[in-house]
Amino acid sequence: MTLCEAHENRAIGRLQKALMMFVVRQMLNLCVWAVVFWSSHVFAQQPDTLNVSYASVTGSRIPLWIAKDAGLFEKYGLNVNLVVIAAGNAAIGALSGGDVEVLGAPGTTTMVSAAKGLPVAIIGTFGPGAWKLAAHPSITSIQELRGKTVGISRPGTTIEFATRRALVKLGFTPGKDINILATGLAESNKRIMVMLQGKIDATLVSPDNLFEAETKNLKLSILTDLNEMGIYTSASDLSAKRDFLKNQRQRARAFMMAYCEAIWLGKSNKSVALASFRKQMRENDPRRLEVLYKNYVVDALPLKPFPMEEVIQTEIENLTPTVPELRGKRAAEFVDKTILTELEREGFFTTLSNKYGKTP
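Now predict its structure.
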């Protein structure tokens, strides 16, 4: 091999090596871009996590359960964790601290907190309550309640204020003619058991828990129906921090869209609602399931779950003597209807009506 040929071979080798390195770099770049594209695509498809709490395992929570069980939260891009946190300071603390983004609890907690400066608002409802004042079977008339003890859930809740309003309308002075005892029990079926043990003499009971007691042959004395007395309450409400509603608007909208669609789905497809009652309440009695469906889906759930401002205003008046910050306040100051109003204006409810065949 001549010297010229040797130089030529070395040049070709360097060229081949350079070409090989170029190809390798291009392949690496291609791989990197592929990984970036794949990762961004995957993460874009991952639903946003949202934490939602509710105060008790009662039938009124059915829209949340349907939205979870039927995949509606995922449909709107959310991965929702449902957790139970008792109403009161713990619940509002979880909301204000950012542990949960949406709170399902009596609106009274939100109103009191907002009046004291916490930037929270009521954004929706679970529908009206349907409470009955039930007593121990030994009490057969309203007047026999005088000097007795009526059990509530916790101080500052809708149950307490509804109980006090009912007793006043019945001619009693709560705390004087009748003792009020906080049992710490949000579920009325548990308060029924405390009552039958003789620890309290009467309490407010939901229709499904009343039916449950009847099926178990537990004798109760029904003294009055609060709706018939003109005492209207909210079964519970949805609340959120105002900065969440402003700064994380799409997540808040997605939650409300899933919640609303769950209502329409439950009303139009009974089997879906019953499946959620079975799963979440571990209830298999066909008769009680029918009662749950009628009370909490057919009768209670509004197709457009706007906050119940008339009820909220009444609660403000009830709370004012003990919460002076509420004096002179109006219900509109404690609610934020903007998301539901936007959805209505954009035709969302019309879309649901066309899909599920229900007319608001």
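The beta strands are 48-54, 78-84, 102-105, 120-125, 132-135, 149-152, 179-182, 202-205, 221-225, 237-241.
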